[in-house]
Amino acid sequence: MNEFNAGWWNCFCSYTEELNDRYYNWAETAKAQLTSAGVTKDEIAFVLKEYSLGKKTEAMLREYLQGL
User: Fold this and answer.
1) Could you tell me the residue range of the domain that residue 54 belongs to?
2) Helix (H) or strand (E) holding 40
3) Contacts by 60-68 with C-beta closer than 8 Å and gap 24+?
4) Are 19 and 29 within 8 A, CB to CB?
5) How far is the first Cα of the chain from the last one, in angstroms, to the nearest whole number?
6) pLDDT tens per residue, range 23-58
7) In sequence order, what are the residues at sequence separation of 6 or more whose Cβ sits closer than 8 angstroms to the Cβ of residue 29?
8) Rg (alpha carbons) of the chain, rounded to whole number
9) Has residue 1 got a pLDDT over 70?
């Protein structure tokens, strides 16, 4: 994963963890960002394997991955 993508994922994961405590519809917002960014199954699988994620972000990513 190149540096830009790694940075994007770091920001995304931090942002979603913060957002889930403050916004009731955070998962839909996060999923819209994933769709807009055109993330792939391989990217999500890599992030799930290699990144330290909060429980809610991990669950949302797994759900999103199943829908791809």
Assistant:
1) 3-67
2) none
3) 60/16, 60/27, 60/30, 60/31, 63/27, 64/31, 64/34, 65/41, 68/40, 68/41, 68/44
4) yes
5) 20
6) 889 999 999 999 999 999 999 999 999 998 999 999
7) 19, 23
8) 11
9) no
What pTM, to 2 d.p., does this model score? 0.88
Contact 9, 47 (CB under 8 A): yes
Host H or E run for residue 2: none
Contact, 16 vs 26, CB < 8 A?
yes
Question: Per the structure, how many domains does the chain have?
Answer: 1
Q: Which segments of 1-68 does DSSP mark as H helices, in order? A: 3-20, 26-37, 41-50, 55-67
